[in-house]
Amino acid sequence: MAQLILNHLTKDFGAKGPGEGGPAVSDVSLTLRKQGFLALLGPSGCGKTTVLRMIAGFEQPTDGSIEFGECRLSDAVRVLPPEKRNMAMVFQSYALWPHMTVAENVGYPLKVRRISGEAWRSRVAEALSLVRLTAYADRRPSALSGGQRQRVALARCLVQQPDIVLLDEPLANLDQHLRKAMEETFRAFHERSSATMIYVTHDQAEAMALATDVAVMSEGKLLQVAPPADIYARPEGRVVGSLIGRGAIVRLRLPEKAGRQLDWPLLQAALAGRRSGHGHAGEGPLSDVLIRPEQVHPDSGGMPMRVLSSVFEGERSALTLALPDGQSLKAYSNKAFCHGTEVPFVISGGWRL
Ligand SMILES: Nc1ncnc2c1ncn2[C@@H]1O[C@H](COP(=O)(O)OP(=O)(O)OP(=O)(O)O)[C@@H](O)[C@H]1O
Hints:
ion transport; globular; ATP binding; 6-stranded mixed β-sheet; binds adenosine-5'-triphosphate; Rossmann fold; alpha+beta; ABC_transporter-like_CS; 4-stranded antiparallel β-sheet; 32% strand
């Protein structure tokens, strides 16, 4: 299977309204892992859908190119039309034909390719079985739930045996419970299809749960691409640090030679403005430090922090704490704390962004 490569991809719609100016997508370069599952994550308007539409062939880049193996799919001069790319796209709206049955909807792309008879029946049956809709083959989409409709859209995608599957917020219209169930379906779909998948979402938990790689975009630019565990542990910069996972970003003066992975003695010294093994903390340049809630623990030997809020979340409570200098932190605890109490906490680690 060939690799998809985005090469300095740029799209400028030429819009110059108030607050606008830069290109929708700016100089995005990315080599997708073969048969990988890439989640494209970022706030609304950061250019995710525009990247997806350029990959699909619906938009032409203003600059840069898209390659699939040896084949150039798009650049500022030429665009291979969508129907000539072996790609399938799944939309938020499912885009099913209301007058066709589930089986007819799923088999439609095969009909377009003039596949009929036994070959048609067996491929449709296989795709329906994968999304667990065999019993619904003769229903119309109007007689299905939202999750079932999305599974029809997935089966229609699978039946085409595409090289690349593009998914634009496919779970956005489903409730939380169904989204979780559908994540399983997507995983099975990915394993079964051996296609490279690109999944646009602004839900970081969904991205982390599904993807082999997460790409974070902001204001048209690609900020970081890494496997979920890496991007969680070592985010680059404030935007990625605040988008991925829960956590607090605090500003601390750190010695010049402090690394990026910070331990409690160094953090404690920086918070108290004391000398640490790395030099004099509390006097170096100000740095952004990401502290995850699971790194903050109540400990009698810790630093006193004020509990600003304690929210019961079932398996634990989520706390908001105020550091002695007023900055806030998040923590998890099995024990509830009263608002306003001072409790000693230790911060087992932090990551300098
Ligand atoms: N056809 C178009 N003409 C002009 N501007 C456009 C067009 N399509 C998108 N844009 C602009 O490009 C920018 C990126 O839009 P895009 O839809 O790619 O963002 P997104 O990250 O997918 O957002 P969302 O999560 O809200 O769907 C936005 O500022 C948008 O207004």
